[in-house]
Amino acid sequence: MTLPACEYLQLEQRDHALFVTFNRPEVRNALSLAMVQELMSVLEAASTDTTLRAIILRGSGGHFCAGGDIRDMANARARLGKDDSDPFYALNRCFGQLLEMAEQAPQMIVCVLEGTVMGGGFGLACISDVALAHSEARFALPETSLGIPPAQIAPFVVKRIGLTQARRLALLGESLCGDEAARLGITHSVYSSTASLEEALANTLSRIKRCAPKANAITKQLMLAVGKTDLGVLLDDAARAFSDAIQGEEGVEGTTAFMQKRKPTWAAERESEA
């Protein structure tokens, strides 16, 4: 995989995982438009790499992400009226496109949540397949206190934790700790130290490598289609996907390995590398 050159993201591929670190610590990794576009380029490049099984999103300087960059909004205001375009619409919609792309990524998206997890950072946590948080992380949707709605984020928050809790968080702009975020289902687990958080990440990556990458990608597609596709059609599609998979390379290897009481090749690689 050829990764794009990035100014605001640090990229490092380790074995089957791509580590993407937001690198604007001076603004608690606030998402500028340029940063969003860089992340979309990375996701696009990764989408066709069948050897890549996980994308890890985290922030530098002890914070995950403080949300959108207010300076981008000021720049958009300066462009108002110069032509027929709506710079605020374009700015906001671009972040929604990022959330859609990240949610649909064939790889597992793992978020490591520390420090500030607000606005757009909150939205990224809500599209992750696995979210690991430090107990002292602070989660919030502060948009309404700024006079704006969490427009692109709100649908993903509702899908993650349900309408009742999403309304409370968005309409009050309340701040949550890591433990409360886990109770609501924003994050899956919480750790009281950086060391235990890093250990949990390593364990998660080990677990991911035990699962067949194509099977994981198909499973994500099926689950994300729930509620969007008629159930009968969805189950027909699922049956076809199952048939294709069990007759394919992964299915043959996985079922053969089970009968032979050995690990399949994608899992055995992990042990040989250890």
UniProtKB/TrEMBL annotation:
Source superkingdom: Bacteria
Pfam entry (one): ECH_1
Gene3D superfamilies for the chain: 2-enoyl-CoA Hydratase, Chain A, domain 1, Lyase 2-enoyl-coa Hydratase, Chain A, domain 2
InterPro entries associated with the record: ClpP/crotonase-like_dom_sf, Enoyl-CoA_hydra/iso, Enoyl-CoA_hydra_C, Enoyl-CoA_Hydratase/Isomerase
PANTHER family in the cross-refs: ENOYL-COA HYDRATASE, POLYKETIDE BIOSYNTHESIS ENOYL-COA HYDRATASE PKSH-RELATED
Family that this chain belongs to: Belongs to the enoyl-CoA hydratase/isomerase family.
Protein name per its UniProtKB record: Isohexenylglutaconyl-CoA hydratase
Protein species of origin: Kistimonas scapharcae
